[in-house]
Amino acid sequence: MQIGTVISTEDSPSTSQFMFVLDKDKDTAKKGQFVQLTTKEGELFGYINELVRANRYFERAESVAEYEKASSMNKNFPTSEWDYLIGEVKILGTLNDEKFLRTYSPPAPGAKVSIADDQILKKFLGFKDDGLNIGKIQHHELETRIDMTRLFQKHLAILAMSGAGKSHLASVLIEELLDRKKEDGRIAVVIVDIHGEYVGFKLDDKYGIKTNLIEGNDINFPVRKVSPEMIEEWLPNLSVPQRELLRHSMHNLKKTEGVYGLKEIVENINESDVARDEVKRTLKRALAELKRYRFLSVNKESPNINDIKPGELLILDFSSIDSLRKKQILVSFIARRLFKLRKKEKIPPFLFLIEEAHNFAREKAEAHEAISRSIIETIAREGRKFGASLCLVSQRPVNLSTTALSQCSTHIILRVTNPNDLDHIQMSAEGIDARVAKSITSLKVGEAIFVGEAVNYPIFVNVRQRKSTKRERGLPLHEQARAFEETRKKKEEQVEAFL
Ligand SMILES: Nc1ncnc2c1ncn2[C@@H]1O[C@H](COP(=O)(O)OP(=O)(O)OP(=O)(O)O)[C@@H](O)[C@H]1O
Ligand SMILES: [Mg+2]
């Protein structure tokens, strides 16, 4: 649709920008919309960076003020006929014979400007027909079909303040992954669900059969699959003699016993003659902490990471676990297993989605609070070669490991208002220019900016509705309050009746 004509100003049209005046009846163009025009080099694309309204009748402050004293200018002059809308366009590139090139010569003044054609825009932005449908591009009727490989292979970060729609967006991404056809390539998805926000998938008619939900307190790993190095990571305060004793005992057990648990390790430590009693005692005290977390078993294994399947979802529902250390230990163990098994090609390529990622890969943290950070950073650095992808979701990007964040080559940013978080996001995500940075604070719930590897240019997306059942733990405040008082009243009545 043709909407206007390129005009000539002091410094435009140039190869990087031009201005155009909108046709009178077509002044519905919006800031951020993509436009195109035909040049000698091919079809030129850009986006409307700003819209300005002009009217010569109102240019001189003193005359406007004088006229308005007597009666309104609008009454005495045909002011509305001189009302123009001018668009400022940033040029993105030129399409020539299916190839996108930099623009080498400016468009001509007088050239006709149109709203970008969706079919070409699709190519221009790098969408694929079998890509993930996340919603529509802002101001266009074009579905955002993002290439799966480009989105996940080099990791994804979803960053926004609380309530901006991170989990909603993550659910949309998961739906798209579960809906993929075998021939398009399917990956397994594993989620660390901190608040039980994804349990709806298990209850859903369509996705339920593809979903395996494990409750946090039911997670169990056999001790024989745990190496002494892992335990050292979980208990970073162990001294050198304690570490030696632990290794010694675990190696002994591995050699002599087929199956063993924490109890056998402790017995072996008791019997050991390589360490002093003091070392034994402190090591046992440290191991008691792991025992308290009740996830190390002799044989029981749940979930079995070997069983993850392409096109299926494993949800680890951590909402019933209180201890952050336990959560970190579980994430560290699962991430290590996933990465190890993937390197040996025993499991399919996977996406490991971590909610509240700042709690699992903290930027500044003491060793005992940074248990899962090193494996997350390792996958962030090396995962892409093996088809091991991360999706880090966080409402506190400032606290998220810079190493992990900077390895995420696509960032999806929803509303953020905290200036510290904004600075941090800008520093860690390439491709956020001043325009994008300025828009982040004014995004509404469900509006997202995609920058980085997955798209050729930053795009603004209205995230679509979800198809899956939404079920959140946690009722609205007023319902919780009502339920509390009702139960309280019932109890009192029962007591009275009893008396
Ligand atoms: N694109 C959207 N369309 C419709 N509703 C949305 C959209 N995005 C988010 N919402 C709604 O907004 C609310 C907050 O979204 P969500 O729970 O995803 O936020 P969040 O960023 O994960 O918050 P938190 O940091 O607290 O986990 C939810 O009720 C969700 O259904
Ligand atoms: Mg959330």
Can you tell me about this structure?
The protein is α/β, with parallel strands linked by helices and 499 residues long. It is built from 16 helices and 20 strands. The strands form 3 sheets. The chain has an 11-stranded mixed β-sheet with strand order 9-8-20-19-18-10-17-16-11-15-12. Strands 1-2-5-4-3-7 form a 6-stranded antiparallel β-barrel. Strand 5 (83-96) and strand 6 form a beta hairpin. It folds into 3 domains: 2-116, no CATH class; 143-217 and 302-463, 3-Layer(aba) Sandwich (Rossmann fold), CATH 3.40.50.300; 223-296, no CATH class. Residues 166-167, 197 line the site of magnesium ion.
The CATH C-level class name of the largest domain: Alpha Beta
Could you say which small molecules are bound to this protein? adenosine-5'-triphosphate, magnesium ion
Shape, per Cα inertia axes: elongated
Query: Which structural class do you get from the secondary structure elements?
Result: alpha/beta
At the fourth CATH level, what is the homologous superfamily of the largest domain? P-loop containing nucleotide triphosphate hydrolases
Number of strands: 20
Tell me the count of domains: 3
**What name does CATH use for the topology of the largest domain?**
Rossmann fold
User: What is the averaged pLDDT score?
Assistant: 91
Identify the strand order in the major beta sheet: 9-8-20-19-18-10-17-16-11-15-12
Could you say what the CATH architecture of the largest domain is? Answer: 3-Layer(aba) Sandwich
Detail the poorly predicted runs. none
Can you count the helices? 16
Beta-strand percentage range: 15-25%
Radius of gyration: 30 Å
Distance between the termini: 81 Å
